[in-house]
């Protein structure tokens, strides 16, 4: 689950990281009030940033500066009227405009290959890290945090030296880098990213003196959806505008659903069985269009909802249903399939394999409704791949 910049900054702040003050405004009038407070503190300008979960906000006009409360109100009104990459802007972040001396990139990511949290740093901050990785991979420095102790001080210093950051900012960098790992652990995040991590110049308010400090100017956090039951308060940070409608329906129905690139829709109960089904589809020469686990004890309404999710993908040319009835009753699944086919808008061939609880009753219902069935999973996968090929020819 991706969360917006302002919410990500709140989580960083809760872990003690240095984040400049900000306000969130949902109306132009709120932005004006926020700018009035910020400018009264001696700041020359404010930055107004669209809060949408897409890249390229600046290029789309979603990040602008303002030198007065009137200008901030006008800028906020213009940004709030935008739709950026299909997502409407419903709120903006208003913060003091930073006087940036130097920009860096710092991020922590869950690396499943090494089963560690990997911390990455680069001297090329303020740009897309994916572009840096593509063009100059040697510019990104990485260390793996200790699985129990977190990021150690010497590792953080190694990163700082790698990007040419030292002197008076070294201690702060170590604290921030360790804080990113602590944030990941505290909230079960997959990604915590600060881009840019910046050295900013700050006035004492009188103009007589200027100091420099290292701060987190922007923040990006992705949370592990599977861990949200451990953090129920974080569910409120979900952005419904950025969520795929199919994903939202799947979550509401308690269905584990992931889009893939193939043409064979898969409906299965049990994550392990779903993975096996996808493997056998590939072995039969096809490509799965999704991972979908309806879970144990699924009733007909849940099965019908799962079918809607699969058919919403225009790439699906055939559907393979593989149910091993334990808690899940085969006849309930059969009724859900019959119900779903009666109202579906697309005529897509379907192959069904149901074994276990009430499998005989399920077979009778499916035969009467003229469904294509299979006795084994290998047979079902082969039939589904053949059906998809026939539709595509």
Q: How is this structure best described in words?
A:
- The chain is built from 12 helices and 19 strands.
- It has 393 residues and is an alpha+beta fold.
- The protein has 3 domains: 1-20 and 99-243, D-amino Acid Aminotransferase, Chain A, domain 1, CATH 3.30.470.20; 21-97, Dna Ligase, domain 1, CATH 3.30.1490.20; 244-392, Succinyl-CoA synthetase domains (Rossmann fold).
- The strands form 5 sheets. Strands 1, 8, 9, 10, 11, 12 and 13 form a 7-stranded antiparallel beta sheet that branches.
- Helix 7 (245-253) packs antiparallel against helix 9 (300-311).
- At the fold tier of CATH, the topology name of the largest domain is D-amino Acid Aminotransferase, Chain A, domain 1
State the low-pLDDT regions, or none: none
Structural class: alpha+beta
Instruction: Give me the number of helical elements.
Output: 12
Broad shape: elongated
> How many structurally independent domains?
3
């Amino acid at each position: 689950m991706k969360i917006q910049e302002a919410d990500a900054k709140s989580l960083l702040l809760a872990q003690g990281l240095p984040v400049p003050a900000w306000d969130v405004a949902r109306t132009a009038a709120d932005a004006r009030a926020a700018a009035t407070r910020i400018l009264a503190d001696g700041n020359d300008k404010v930055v107004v940033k669209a809060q949408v979960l897409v890249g390229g906000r600046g290029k789309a006009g979603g990040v602008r500066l303002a030198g007065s409360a009137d200008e901030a109100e006008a800028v906020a009104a213009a940004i709030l009227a935008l739709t950026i990459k299909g997502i409407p802007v419903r709120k903006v972040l208003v913060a003091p405009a930073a006087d940036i001396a130097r920009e860096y990139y710092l991020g922590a990511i869950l690396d499943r290959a090494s089963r560690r949290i990997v911390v990455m740093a680069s001297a090329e901050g303020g740009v897309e890290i994916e572009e840096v990785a593509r063009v100059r991979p040697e510019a990104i420095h990485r260390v793996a945090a200790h699985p129990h102790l977190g990021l150690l001080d010497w590792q953080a210093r190694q990163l700082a030296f790698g990007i040419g950051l030292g002197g008076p900012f070294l201690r702060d960098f170590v604290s921030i880098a360790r804080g990113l790992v602590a944030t990941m652990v505290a909230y079960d995040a997959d990604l915590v990213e600060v881009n840019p991590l910046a050295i900013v110049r700050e006035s004492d308010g009188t103009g007589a003196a200027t100091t420099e400090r290292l701060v987190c100017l922007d923040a990006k956090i992705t949370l592990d959806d599977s861990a949200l039951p451990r953090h129920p308060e974080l569910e409120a940070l979900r952005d419904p505008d950025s969520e795929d409608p199919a994903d939202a329906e799947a979550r509401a129905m308690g269905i584990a659903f992931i889009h893939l690139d193939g043409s064979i829709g898969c409906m299965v109960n049990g994550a392990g069985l779903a993975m096996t089904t996808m493997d056998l589809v590939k072995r039969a020469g096809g490509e799965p269009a999704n991972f979908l686990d309806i879970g144990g004890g699924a009733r007909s309404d849940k099965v019908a909802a799962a079918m809607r999710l699969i058919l919403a993908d225009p790439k699906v040319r055939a559907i393979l249903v593989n149910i091993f009835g334990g808690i899940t009753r085969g006849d309930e699944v059969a009724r859900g399939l019959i119900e779903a086919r009666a109202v579906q808008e697309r005529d897509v061939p379907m192959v069904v394999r149901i074994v276990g609880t009430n499998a005989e009753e399920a077979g009778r219902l499916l035969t009467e409704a003229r469904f294509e069935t299979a006795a084994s999973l290998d047979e079902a996968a082969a039939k589904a791949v053949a059906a998809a090929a026939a539709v595509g020819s």
